[in-house]
Amino acid sequence: MRPGVSATNPPVLRFGLFTVPERLPRGYWFSLAPGVSRVEIEIGTGDGRFLVEAASAAPDTLFAGFEVRASSTARTERRGLPPNAIVKHLDGRWCAENLFGDASINAYHAYFPDPWWKKRHAKRRIFTPTFAAALYRTLTADGCVYVITDVETRYREIAQTLEEAGFFAVAWQRQPDSPAQSSYERKYRAQGRRLFGARFVKAGG
To answer: What is the CA radius of gyration of the chain?
Structure first.
């Protein structure tokens, strides 16, 4: 538990200008971009290329990006966000586990998560059993998680963790000419590097 946080002094997340004392309902997201009917979350926006392009291509969907690096958040903002996109300098894993309401999100995107190669850093990998359970809880019945990585061993670990949480993998590949690609995806495709990914859907959804 973080310093200064206890069972009697729970963390209070500062979200924008507001203190959020409880989990965010689905309607919260719609209030941020009137007219949208879907909510999709990107965990780790990098320089924001995917977020901006995906939002531009789907005006009926709110795309919300969560990034732990302030410099990356700033780069995303400098791209110029369409009205149906937001980016927050927040830990997306923590938000999914503690902040997002049940059945409130249509899809999650996690592209090229840091592999954290060293054994002592393994706990920093985002796809933990707790995080996978949070994804399952917060997704709508037909919700899904999109994952792409260039590290086969990490992909297999991610797939196993999600499957143990109640997801199953569906074969999926983004069209190579899609503008909605992260900078890493564009770079690695150009290099001819093999990519590993799938769309994970809720069992019974």
So the answer is: 17
What's the token pair of residue 56? 């531009």
3-state secondary structure of 199: strand
Residue 142 bears catalytic tag: no
Catalytic residue among 114, 142, 150, 177: 114
The owner of tokens 């069972």 is: 7
Give domain status of residue 6, yes or no. Answer: no
Query: What does the pLDDT read at residue 3?
Result: 42
pLDDT at 12: 46
Give how many domains the chain has, as a whole number: 1
Residue-level length of the chain:
205
On whether residue 11 sits in a domain, the answer given is no
Task: Give, for 186, the enclosing helix (H) or strand (E).
Answer: helix 183-191
Q: Are 94 and 80 in contact (CB under 8 A)?
A: no
Q: The domain containing residue 65 runs over which residues?
A: 37-202
**Structure token pair of residue 44:** 């780790």
CATH code of the domain containing 167? 3.40.50.150
Is residue 182 included in any domain, yes or no?
yes
Q: E strands of 84-128, at which residues? A: 85-88, 105-111
Q: What are the CA-CA distances from residue 90 to residues 15, 86, 195 (Å)?
A: 9, 12, 27
For residue 89, give both structure tokens: 């300098």
- Confidence tier at 135 by pLDDT (50, 70, 90): very high
Q: Is residue 93 part of a domain?
A: yes
